[in-house]
Amino acid sequence: MGECEPIYEFDKPREACGVFGVYAPGEDVVQLAYLGAEALQHRGQDAAGLMVSSSESGMYGVKDEGLVSEVLTDNVVNGLKDEKAHSAIAHTRYGTSSQAGFDSAQPIYRELVNGRHFALVHNGHIEGLTSDNKSDSETFADMLVEEIRQGEMIERALMRVAAKTDGAYSIVIMTDDRVIGLRDRNGFRPLELGELKNGGGFVIASETAALEQIDADHDRQILPGEVVSVGSHGIWSDMYADPEPKLCAFEYIYFARPSTEINDISVHEARKTMGRLLAEQGVPEADAVVGVPDSGVPAAKGFSEASGIPDVIGLEKNRYISRTFIKDNQLSREKAVGLKLTPLKSEIKGQRLIVVDDSIVRGTTTRALTSMLRHAGAEEVHLKIASPPYKWPCFYGMDTGNPDEFLANQHNYEGMVKELGVDSLDYLSIDNLKHSVGPMAGKICMACLDGDYPTPKTVK
Predict the structure, then answer these.
(1) In the chain, where the domains are located
(2) Are 297 and 317 within 8 A, CB to CB?
(3) Which CATH number is associated with domain 18-245?
(4) How far apart (Å, rounded) are the C-alpha atoms in residues 345 and 160?
(5) What is the DSSP string of 305-374?
(6) CA 441 to CA 435: how far, in whole Å?
(7) 3 pLDDT above the threshold of 60
(8) What residues does 234 pair with on adjacent strands?
């Protein structure tokens, strides 16, 4: 990450983008795509975009830096609406120091021969495709254009391109008459298929939470190595590779919304289980359990239930402070954390706290959070992390920077306790993380936590 890294994720891994596509002739597909993007806002807050396909007006849309509500204002959304529109796709993006700004915003549009078009949205990282100052998403789109020009139907062209690439990605494509979803052969990134309850169309989205947002039924996940096409033809699917499931563990730990289900496992319940198992590892004498919003809160609830120590709302999240404001003003990390989280002194002062968070990478914002709790009057701070120590680099698209900077690589236990300014520290064990996701235990990638890479390591 570069110097302009906004202190928003509290020093968490960064990779997630949100992708959404809907095919529903006769429905307000623009409004559906807007709502879907809003439901996926947590997956990307640097840029947003929406593109529409209309039998009368062709393909058009809007994209820019900013939150969904900032890019897709009421006036913009109303201006995109078209009674002849049958499909729409939307995207929320996290940028990196090397790929940020308007040029990296999606959807990506490409024009084909005979007046045909397609638009693409992408979540993840495709290996070895960044070239000529183009992103991996753009290069993938260019490769798809070339395959289609060879006379391939778009689904088959997409399968041919995907078979030539490696990486960790999910893609949604909108054409003039259909919407198509694709997952990499390992299924590192999630992708779900649903149908509108009135039978009027189909939806493909990163998370089931986006389906719920528009009152769509969840059919199933799109499988690793699968291409699924929806349109007037109904649902078409085929496999371009044998599936080797390795969903990123951080979907359960941090990325996904609590209301989402992945592989029929509730993210909220998985996080509560992480907290319960943390408590089984050991409980210090304490007065209250405090979860760090947002993804630390379910784990704190589970810890409280297992330990019998009451959980309290000790930290209030300011959901309305502009991420751009923090970025542009280059605030100190501690001040930025203070803008995002406010300690509730009535719950903290004089208390021995168990503070539950989902993960630590470098630890710098955690140290600032601890300092803030001490300043608010906490007598003791015992830190519980609902994931194992983050120690290895990710080669599958997570933007975590230099492994030499990871807290767990810089210090032993005593050093981490001192660095963070806490009274004690405990991480969830690898085995307990596996127990937390039940039947997915052998089908998740934990390479950043255990060093066991599911594919040959390559340079990002």
Answers:
(1) 18-245, 270-437
(2) no
(3) 3.60.20.10
(4) 58
(5) HHH-PPEE--EEE-S-S-HHHHHHHT--HHHHHHHHEEE-HHHHTT-EEEEEES--SS-HHHHHHHHHHH
(6) 7
(7) no
(8) 231
Q: Which residue is associated with the tokens 């970025």?
A: 327
pLDDT at position 95: 67
Q: Give residue-wise pLDDT tens across range 226-275.
A: 999 999 999 999 999 999 999 999 999 999 999 999 999 999 999 999 99
Q: Please identify every residue annotated as catalytic.
A: 17
Q: What pLDDT score does 97 carry?
A: 43
Tokens read off for 66: 């900013």
Q: How far is CA 417 from CA 315, 366, 408, 430, in A?
A: 21, 11, 11, 20
Compute how many other C-beta atoms are within 10 angstroms of the C-beta atom of residue 292: 24
Same topology, domains 18-245 and 270-437? Answer is no
Question: For position 162, what pLDDT does the model report?
Answer: 95
Both ends of the chain: CA-CA distance in Å? 14
The CATH number given to 270-437 is 3.40.50.2020
Predicted structure pTM score:
0.92
For 372-413, what is each residue's pLDDT tens digit? 999 999 999 999 999 999 999 988 877 777 899 999 999 999
Of the candidates 98, 95, 92, 168, which has an alpha carbon nearest to the alpha carbon of residue 128? 168
Left if phi > 0, otherwise alpha if psi is -120 to 50, otherwise beta: which for 267?
alpha
